[in-house]
Amino acid sequence: MLNQETVYKVIDYAMRNGADFAELYVERWRRRAMRLIDAEVREATSGIELGAGLRLFYGLNVVYAYTNDLSEAALLELAQTLTRLKASQGQVDAKGGGGLDFRKEIYTGLHAPQTDFESKDKRFRLERLLEVDAGARIAPEIKQVESRLLEWEQDVLVANSQGVWAEDKRVRSRAVGLAIASDSQGTQTGSDSPGLSVGLELFELYPPQEIGRKAAEQALTNLRAKKVPAGTMPVVIGNAFGGVIFHEALGHLLETTSVAKKASVLTDKLGEEVASPTVTYIDDGTTRHGWGSSEYDDEGMRTERTVLIEKGILKSYMVDKLGSLQTGYAATGSGRRQDYTFAPTSRMRNTFIAPGDTPKEKLFEGIEYGLYAKSMGGGQVKPGSGEYNFGVTEGYMIRNGKIEESVRGAMLVGKGPDSIKKIVAVSSDLATAPGMCGSLSGSIPTEVGQPHLLISEIVVGGEA
Amino acid sequence: MTYKEARQYLLSEAKKRGLEAEILASESRELTLESFEGKLIQMTQATQGGIGVRVVVGGKTGYASTEERSPKALDWVLKEAKENAELQTKTGGFIPAGQAMGNQDLIGEGLSASLEEKAAKAIELEKHLRQDERTKQVPMTRYSENETELSLSSTRGAEGGYRNGYTYLMSSLIMAQGENIKQHFDFQLEKEFHALEPGRTALRMLEDTSRLLGAKPLKTGRYTAYIEPKAFAQLMGIFFFMISGKTVMEGKSRLADKLGQKIASELVTIIDDPLLKDGKANRPFDSEGVPAQTLRVIENGVLKSFLHNSETARALNQANTGHASRSYSSTLGVAPSNFYLQPGQGITLREGIIITELMGVHAGANPISGDISVQAFGLKVEGGEVVCAVDNFALSSNLLDMLMNVRALGDSLEWSPFAGMTGSPMVEVSDVSFGGV
């Protein structure tokens, strides 16, 4: 996207003018989206995003600038703006420049698509979304079906003053089915939204009719559901997107973004028991075709598999470059950002609870009265206090070990460190699901995952 | 190519290709300064922009956008937009007739100040927050400003633009009392740099955070909820979805057939006013160039109007209210400006829970059914007095039931920057479910 000479000049300029570290990030996105309601195209969009971000470190101080203009003149002006901005805050000593030698690394196609976006026309996409719609028409109560396809193609170059030159290409696809069911009693919704780092073979991995059918079944279940009774009770959490609970309750507390400022309740706890011994928690940026995978992170470091918690013991944080400088922990390839308009911070990639050895049925045994949270919506956390919540999109009551009637409107509420210790059993049926995670460096694709597991007690919001 | 040249290029190319087109471009400038432990540790400066088209061909509508302004990228945009349009089966799409609207400046010199003065605001806010001995950490304090220049032109004669901007102070605060820890996030948003008051913002944040320290669990039950303005403003965002003409047009609103009917307590009057005196989300015209006007959405409990753009108004055969919303990269939607619940006569606290904050609203509210089940924080009221803070509980109801059960409204309005700017007084709602221990 940029020639080496231009990149060299920009980084060299910054270093000559006193920066301790300089990093140039350049990217070009091509995105498409198509949205149908009841088998009619409502909106189809296509877009190009192009920009560069320049980040300089002066000790632990950071200056960042970005622009859409990738001409050499504009990028040099960016470097001048930043060094001037810094100089306005006090004396900066000039340094010698030169001698920078890039070690070029380029993506190997670990997550490359089989069916790339240009190989199929828009009609092909439309036909698949029509199949999502058709798959959802399973009952007269299904009153509306929305189907969507998102496709992202991102070319990235990261180069820095330590000789890093990494080029990555990331291709992602996600399909969404949303069904609305109504009867004289009310209106409820259901959805299914698989996504991976793949091209249009997504529809082979997740047949479109199935996406529609799953969404419709969930909408019908919710239509027949009663309001969930409120109170504190044991909860079995379903696999796949159920992992969002630990994304909120645990994952965000392990990012150096909050750990470095001692703003996480899990700061300075390496080697300590922070979860029950049944819990092993892993963040893996290398999962083949994972929704949150990439070959390099947004700081040009190769991604890796990071074991965060092993059998309840805290083993590692998720560490970006700045976090590494601040804490002394080695970087883990976790520097991520939404796009060039954000400086990177430490973020999750594909994060999941490793399989345990309790058979799934055993989790329900012995529960006199509780909730089976089969499917989850999103959630939110305050890392400083560990308080978090997440919504249940499909739930059932458990009585005397048996899964009984469906319930809707459950919201689970807890305090991170407390509820992690209350995970008493983990089954072996690990599955993962895609999500979008919002934080300081914007909204990024992350995968969550877990097997079915049992929390001995947690607050369930509902009807009192 | 400059944005102006790119706009002209797209207009003339669209005409050559027989397309009706509306072109929206925006350019923005951002400055963010972050203070930590009394020092400026992070600065971001940026310029960014893009250009997007909405084209109509044979009554079918398509969109495309780009941040790259080369002829190659602009040609790709027109080709993609036309292909996207041709996928539609429905015809009847149109670009509304426009007019010359001129160029306006809504911010003037409001953000003028030196970098030192701007940094000092953030540093001062953090310093005030650290003065309380219960403050455990102030992980982030920021000064930020944004200035955007927007322009619109169409093959049907729309031509104009405006420059707007805002500045804000934002901080995240963690306070502790024994084992009990509370974190709170807040900001002060203004149109004028000199209106920022770090001292007052800090006092409010310290009060809002510390009053929750030592919170006790709440017993599951039904209580009267006294919902503070900021918390209710979050629910107004869900309500907005239900009265958006786009939601109604797409058959997703439970209020679709309720125009002229009573849907809320007669105490409730909700207004959207893009021309509000000193409003922070004012605009001279909407994203299709329709001049701004004040709109009464609910008057004394009766639903008076939805919010419309040209497309939703025509589809529902109702008047266009001038609420079109589109960024260069998005499709045509509907958005409020200064959207508020009119204050009432005041509230007398008796028995119940003051809700100070809601959390997880994006996950726990279903805007289609109106069902909400969200985490809440608050203060317990007995015999008219606050007796303790409460936490680790959830509030569950249906938004439309809550609007019917409004018993009283506070007498002053507070604004929060959600979905434009949303204003609300304190709202008393009877008989709400709370799940706790």
Short description:
The complex is a heterodimer of chains A (464) and B (437). Chain A is of the alpha+beta class.
List the helices and strands and how they pair.
The complex is a heterodimer of chains A (464) and B (437).
Chain A lengths: L3 H13 L4 E17 L2 E19 L2 E7 L4 H16 L15 E4 L15 H15 L5 E19 L3 E20 L2 E7 L2 E2 L5 H4 L2 H17 L1 E2 L3 E7 L6 H6 L6 H4 L21 E4 L20 E6 L2 E2 L6 H7 L7 E2 L8 E2 L3 E4 L6 H5 L4 E14 L4 E13 L2 E7 L2 E5 H5 L2 E4 L4 E9 L2 E9 L2 E9 L3
Helix pairs in contact in A: 1-2, 3-5
Chain B lengths: L2 H14 L3 E17 L2 E19 L2 E7 L4 H16 L13 E6 L9 H16 L4 E20 L4 E19 L2 E11 L7 H13 L5 E2 L3 E7 L1 H15 L1 H5 L20 E3 L22 E5 L2 E2 L6 H7 L7 E2 L7 E2 L3 E4 L10 E8 L1 H4 L6 E12 L2 E14 H6 L1 E4 L4 E3 L4 E4 L2 E9 L2
Parallel strand pairs in B: 4-6, 8-18, 9-16, 15-21
Antiparallel strand pairs in B: 1-2, 1-5, 2-3, 5-6, 6-7, 9-22, 10-11, 10-15, 11-12, 13-14, 16-17, 17-18, 18-22, 19-22, 20-21
Description:
The complex is a heterodimer of chains A (464) and B (437). Chain A has helices at 4-16, 72-87, 122-136, 202-205, 208-224, 244-249, 256-259, 321-327, 360-364, 416-420; strands at 21-37, 40-58, 61-67, 103-106, 142-160, 164-183, 186-192, 195-196, 226-227, 231-237, 281-284, 305-310, 313-314, 335-336, 345-346, 350-353, 369-382, 387-399, 402-408, 411-415, 423-426, 431-439, 442-450, 453-461. With 464 residues, chain A is an alpha+beta fold. In chain A, strands 1, 2, 3, 4, 5, 6, 7 and 8 form an eight-stranded mixed beta sheet that branches. The model of chain A has no long low-confidence stretch (mean pLDDT 94). Chain B is of the alpha+beta class. In chain B, strands 1, 2, 3, 4, 5, 6 and 7 form a seven-stranded mixed beta sheet that branches. In chain B, helix 1 packs across helix 2 (71-86) and helix 3 (115-130) runs parallel beside helix 4. The longest helix of chain B is centred in the N-terminal third of the chain and has 16 residues, at 71-86. The relative contact order of chain B is 0.13. The model of chain B has no long low-confidence stretch (mean pLDDT 95). The chains are: A alpha+beta (464), B alpha+beta (437). The interface between A and B is large, with 82 and 81 residues. Strand 3 (61-67) of chain A pairs parallel with strand 2 of chain B, so a sheet runs across the interface.
